[in-house]
Design brief:
The complex is a heterodimer of chains A (262) and B (170). Chain A is of the alpha+beta class and 262 residues long. Chain A has three helices and 14 strands. In chain A, a hairpin with a 2-residue loop joins β11 and β12. Chain A starts with a helix and ends with a strand. The relative contact order of chain A is 0.20. Chain B starts with a helix and ends in an 11-residue tail after the last helix. The longest helix of chain B has 30 residues, at 2-31. Mean pLDDT of chain B is 78; it is low at 81-101. By secondary structure, chain B is mostly helical. The chains are: A alpha+beta (262), B mainly alpha (170). Chains A and B meet through α1, α2 and β10 of A and α1, α2, α4, α5 and α6 of B.
């Protein structure tokens, strides 16, 4: 009887098995990408330990968004590193970002007023475009307590590395291993954040508790902190990429769209 | 220094060539999907490579690789299992690969909790003794026994007692 199960498993293990091909060449490519992501991980963990979280100003047209940019250090400064604070109350966004960052070049985007947080459906999209420029990392936080889809269109380059990081209750920073999303133009990837925060790493402390989703493309890292949900939510990453131009900056269009509760 | 590095790389390459196929098959039994199996096997090898300096002298770096793989598998599942439940974009669920072979087996395996599935695969596909399964799963040997017992019970319900052993027979 034991042999039947073993036989079945051995048959199953080879059913439809594709050729190994040049597996080592594939390994070399994976290793290269992992090395990039590891650099990002170390950087993310290090900065997260020193600052609240990574945040980046969105490129909002000030006439549309009503956002304000404060130039000084925020009161919500982390223990180790001063941050600056950005708010866009009309759009419901707020950010803290390390005050040492001076790389933000806002690009004109469009934001639309969204309905207040709650169970009701939010019927509008908010599109935020911002330019990571020479920054090592960009981040975006959405303070939407209802279900939220965040669609990220990554223009350049093609490869996106998703990294989830979290902070434990005692303040220690734990980074998960990077999730490599080998993006090709037009692809969509989904990472779903569950209703129960314990299922995935989450930020339990700091001024913007929630889930953090960070991605890196050739180490221009972007982070999104999503507040803890009461329901389900999805993060859609739609990768669009022209040919990579090293001289170009990486623009990110972030579309935030909330869904009605099912 | 360069000689040591090239020796190291050569040794790892030999290990890779010898083990990759079987690791990928193990990954396939864990994931049910050849694409994910390839990813899991490659990620595992990257980690083994990183730790090669420490593990190369061990008698069985393959055992280390399997431990890494089951841990990576669990991490992968943490990310994707909720997606499979809620997402708009379904996680690939291609049990149809090779489905002619053992659809019932696949369905039964998929239905097992992760660690039980891992325990069954490591015990009955890899033929690892309980002690090694315990190391790979980072649980006490007694837990491996109880997980295996439960898993076999579940498999027996689906596949029938003629195909799945009683725990005492193992």
């Amino acid at each position: 009887m034991t042999e039947d199960l073993r036989d079945a498993l051995h048959r199953a293990a080879t059913a439809g098995e594709p050729a190994v091909g040049d597996a080592f060449a594939r390994f070399a490519a994976v290793k290269r990408r992992a090395a990039i992501a590891r650099s990002a991980t170390v950087a993310v963990v290090g900065l997260t330990a020193a600052a609240t979280l990574f945040f980046m100003l969105p490129g909002l047209n000030s006439g549309d968004s009503g956002g304000s940019l404060t130039g000084g250090d925020a009161t919500s400064s982390p223990p180790f590193k001063p941050v600056k604070h950005y708010e866009d109350r009309a759009a419901g966004f707020a950010f803290d970002y390390p005050s040492s960052w001076d790389v933000f070049n806002p690009s004109v985007g469009r934001s639309v007023d969204v309905a207040p947080a709650g169970d009701e459906a939010l019927s509008v999209d908010t599109k935020v475009a911002f330019d990571c420029g020479a920054a090592d990392r960009c981040a975006y936080v959405a303070e939407r307590p209802t279900r939220t889809n965040v669609r990220v269109t990554w223009r350049d380059p093609a490869q996106v590395v998703a990294l989830l990081a979290s902070r434990t209750a005692r303040g220690a920073v734990v980074a998960t291993e990077p999730t490599l999303m080998d993006g090709r133009a037009g692809e969509r990837h989904t990472i779903t954040f569950p209703a129960e925060p314990s299922n995935l790493p989450h930020i339990s402390e700091g001024p913007h508790p929630g889930y953090m989703f960070t991605w890196c493309a050739s180490c221009e890292i972007a982070s999104i902190v999503i507040p803890r949900w009461t329901g389900t939510a999805s993060l859609l990453v739609e990768i669009t990429s022209p040919a990579h131009d090293p001289a170009s900056s990486a623009d990110i269009d972030v579309i935030i769209q909330s869904l009605a509760r099912a | 220094m360069a000689d040591r590095a090239s020796l190291r790389d050569r040794a790892f390459r030999e290990f890779f060539d010898a083990e990759f196929r079987s690791l990928r098959r193990l990954a396939y039994l864990l994931t049910g999907n050849w694409t994910e199996a390839e990813d899991l096997a490659q990620e595992t090898m990257v980690r083994v490579y990183r730790a090669w300096g420490q593990i190369a002298e061990r008698d069985r770096p393959g055992a280390y690789a399997r431990t890494v793989m089951v841990n990576r598998h669990r991490s992968m599942l943490r990310r994707t299992m909720v997606e499979a439940k809620y997402a708009l974009h379904r996680v690939s669920d291609t049990v149809t690969e090779g489905a002619e072979a053992d659809v019932e087996l696949w369905e039964a395996l998929k239905a097992l909790p992760v660690k039980e599935r891992q325990a069954v695969v490591l015990r009955f596909y890899e033929d690892l003794p309980i002690a090694e399964v315990a190391i790979a799963l980072d649980v006490p040997p007694g837990t491996v026994k109880s997980m295996t017992h439960r898993a076999l019970g579940r498999l027996r319900e689906v596949l029938g007692p003629e195909k799945v052993p009683e725990m005492e027979d193992v």
